[in-house]
Amino acid sequence: MTPGHFVSFILYQMEIGGYVQTLVELHMDLIESLESADKVFEYMDHKPSVLCGDLAPDQLKGHVMFKNISFSYSSSPDNKVLENVSFEMKPGSITALVGVSGGGKSTCVALLKHLYEPQSGEIFLDGRPLKEYEHKYFHQKVAVASQEPELFACSIQNNITYGLDSYSEDVLQTAVKQAHVNSFVHSLKEGYDTDVGERGGLLSVGQKQRIAIARALLRQPQVLILDEVTSSLDTESEKMIQTALACFTTQTTLIVAHRLKTIEGADQIIVIDKGMVSEKGTHMELMENKGIYYKLRESRFNEDNNETSQPSEK
Ligand SMILES: Nc1ncnc2c1ncn2[C@@H]1O[C@H](COP(=O)(O)OP(=O)(O)OP(=O)(O)O)[C@@H](O)[C@H]1O
């Protein structure tokens, strides 16, 4: 074999090797695609774990009642997350859920959002179990503004009106005013046309949360859930939300709060501890009780003061 033949032979082998490698890659891609398709079919076959009915009344007052709710997640059935939880939210009132981490506040919210069915007890909306309501109707009437709102890389206006085919200009104006979006948008050169960037990255946490609240209010829900919406707010946004809460009288509001100062004006504060309602009352009543709420407030007050008085580490 001449050196020329040898080189040709090696190149030929490499070409064959390339084909084999391509075939192997194609085979792997095919396996991955089949696995993905399996997941899609599995998802399509998945039966929803919550029940829905066809109830969709023209009028809804927004009266909420948790009655003897006990609940465990299916992934850890032995861990009773809520035990015999009962409380009532009157139409147009503000209820704050507070308590130490892991107490069960977010689980109460998840149950009110009807993401799960409790193992025992029932949640009622205007006297009817959640499971009797029509799915789309229920999610229009019960809206959530969460701690980490999903914002899209488009204008502030489009982020607020996202997903709505139509809306009234009046309602939009009321929503942005109530959520105190106006106050920061007016200082932006392009106002409501300002692009918020990928995942809203060009806005502060407080601004994002105010947009999330406006988005929820625009849907004119009868029940509004503010899920940990105040946990990482700057002082200005905290004050804004505190003022905004005072205007929330047309819907029933449930707020899960870390910043206890924000919810001082709530009609009732419910302390959830180890899955149970341990205290219930107004801010003044709970402060006089000198129980868990009082201690939480003291410790958070000290934490906040320490944070502001500590020199920041570089
Ligand atoms: N999806 C889940 N699957 C299994 N267990 C969960 C799930 N979510 C929460 N838990 C458990 O339920 C208990 C209550 O958690 P939950 O998040 O409701 O408390 P929380 O009071 O909202 O806490 P935090 O203030 O930290 O958000 C905890 O023991 C938690 O580990």
Please summarize what this structure is.
This is ABC transporter domain-containing protein. The chain is α/β, with parallel strands linked by helices and 314 residues long.
Query: CATH class, please?
Result: Alpha Beta
Order of helices and strands: HEEEHEEHEHHHHEHEEEHH
Q: Terminal Cα separation, in Å?
A: 70 Å
How do the strands of the widest beta sheet line up side by side? 6-7-8-3-9-10
Enumerate how many helices there are, as a single number: 10
Give me the CATH superfamily.
P-loop containing nucleotide triphosphate hydrolases
- Category from helices, strands and their pairing: alpha/beta
**Domains (count):** 1
- How much is the radius of gyration in Å? 26 Å
Distinct ligands, ions and cofactors found in the model = adenosine-5'-triphosphate
Q: Give the overall pLDDT as a whole number.
A: 83
**What is the 3D shape?**
extended
The description of the largest β-sheet is: 6 strands, mixed
Which CATH architecture is right? Answer: 3-Layer(aba) Sandwich
Estimate the strand proportion.
15-25%
Indicate the CATH topology: Rossmann fold
Helix % is 40-55%
